[in-house]
Design a protein that fits this description.
globular
């Protein structure tokens, strides 16, 4: 049977402007192109986990506005089971700039994501920090099995949440912001790959396959979802890390967050090459 996973997290609509280079403070950059994509770290990771074969549910919130259907479209296509509240606030929006090398600048207006509430008792849960910390803490308390936290964007994470987490996924900046070392940490290093730390000590390292990076927006979400699904499938930790680096690389080689998220077959193919 496929692993079961409940994602408690954010749902956004990504408004993406592509330009040759990112603007400096106070500068206007013209000649950009514009696209809209479903996004939000919670929704991205739910779609990614579903494409990797997991049985996925998402707990979140959207507004009563035209953006909500667009934001939920890929989740429905991926057969993610939705428990989504209609919040009083508008649907969350991410304003994303992407340059010709795939580097990004992102500003998020959370909107209805600030109203997400934790579910009842669930077995395996994945959270991020684009929803209230109180909701993340409540989700950790009601999880009976595996609890994973992608501690992004960086916020002060309660010690009790870290203590409950079976896996924490962070980049260098997010790791430095944690009050203590988690039991198991997947530290992402961008183009260098990732490192797995147990109680702060390195136990595995992996490099991503070579790709032409065009958009790094969903790469971290692809990595996180693959790491969680791989561990729930019972894969060896080193193999899980290697597969997750491949998932992140594939996502970075494609445009958009949710459209870029790879399948299990695509990860197998790039790792066998």
């Amino acid at each position: 049977m496929p692993p079961s996973l409940t994602v408690v997290g954010s749902i956004n609509l990504d408004l993406v402007a592509r330009c040759r280079r990112l603007p400096l403070p106070g500068e206007t950059v013209t000649d950009a192109s514009f696209e809209r994509f479903p996004g939000g770290k919670g929704a991205n990771q739910a779609v990614a986990a579903a494409r990797l074969g997991a049985d996925v549910a998402l707990v979140g919130a959207v507004g009563r506005d035209p953006f909500s259907d667009e934001a939920l479209a890929s989740l429905r296509e991926a057969d993610v089971r939705l428990t989504v509240a209609d919040g009083d606030a508008p649907t969350g929006v991410a304003l994303i700039y992407v340059d010709s090398a795939g580097e990004t600048q992102i500003v998020v207006a959370p909107g209805a994501n600030s109203e997400v509430e934790a579910p009842g008792s669930v077995e395996n849960v994945l959270c991020q920090l684009e929803i209230p910390l109180e909701t993340v803490a409540a989700a950790a308390r009601v999880t009976s099995g595996f609890f994973a936290l992608n501690a992004a964007p960086s916020k002060p994470v309660p010690v009790e949440v870290l203590g409950r987490a079976d896996l924490v996924v962070v980049n260098r900046h997010e790791l430095d912001a944690l009050p203590e070392a988690p039991r198991l940490t997947a530290l992402t290093l961008g183009a260098e790959g990732a490192v797995l730390l147990e109680d702060g000590q390195e136990i595995a390292r992996a490099a991503p396959p070579k790709v032409d990076a065009v958009d790094g927006t969903g790469a971290g979400d692809a990595f996180t979802a693959c790491m969680v699904v791989s561990l729930l499938e019972g894969r060896d930790r080193k193999e899980a890390l290697r597969r997750s680096c491949a998932a992140g690389a594939l996502a970075a080689s494609r445009v958009g967050a949710q459209p870029s998220l790879p399948t299990t077959a695509e990860i197998d193919e790039i790792l066998s090459g």
